[in-house]
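Appendix B. Chain record.
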Amino acid sequence: MSFVINRRALLRSSFALTASGLAAPALIGRAEAAVLKLKLSSSQANDPKFANGRVYYDNLVKQIAAGPLAGQIEVAFFPDNQLGQEIDVINSVKLGVIDLMVSGSSIAANLVPLVGTYDLGYLFSSFPQQTKAFDAGAATPIEQALLKGSNIRIIAWAYNFGARSVLARKAVNTPEDLAGLKIRTLPNPVITECLRLMGAAATPMAFGEIYTGLQAGVLDGMEHDPPTIVASKFYETAKFYSLTQHNFSPLAIYFSEATFNRMSASMREGFIDAAKKAAADTRTHGLDVEKEALSQLKDKGVTVIDCDREAFRKRVLPQTDAFVKARPDAKPVIDLIRATSA
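Structure tokens predicted for this chain:
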């Protein structure tokens, strides 16, 4: 069999190969420049000073822009429960539908009960002590359990912006003053039990339903940190803030394992480094704004009460022993935390 080579066809073929060869680098360049788009959810208001989710988002964007991943990762922020209530969002993070979530550790206890260790009343004495305990290893078992049990990584820890205390429609100085008051708690059995032991009629409710619950009289109060109360305007519906300081709640940066696995090794390293630096910046900010938020609450007509914290603490103490009895794996974590409280 013989072949007749047509010169014109050969030229056309050569031109096509050359053109495709020239086009290939451009196509590759576009593929390499593809931006990874991530969704970050927060239940809190879109407040750049008093809402921890927005503050963390701003810090994360700043750290990404300043590092080796500049231009490679784009983070879209969804505050105010735009992607759903927190229990739905954390399940979406588990499934990889949402990439990131900024929230207290409490919500994750609904997926992995050991995380509820951090919700035990009066476990931490301050936020700096919390960081000291985490640096000593008290965070590692929780992180490992959450990853194993729900495919969610905690890639950084920050603080909620102040200790959790009780905002109510009436003055609360002692546990007896809390008796019968419907106080909103996180939908988490450990923190609900903490408020019950303090004397309240603890009422679990999603964050997005608090304001209307207070407004309608379904709730007599809630418990949260001062900046969150300012940012979400809860002071409009209750005018007494008792500094029970029953929980120094850690703020977790939740990251979907599915998203983590989609990243290259270098991108993972760069992103987690940015996430940790953003968390450190957020911790500093949180400590600074707590006092400012308390001052604003006073200016808005809220009576801030330095209540009998020791009376509340004594009533809550049995909770820790009962928790350890039910979950022995919590004991090493609690021991590490207590060892750093001095």
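Further analysis of this model is presented in Appendix C.
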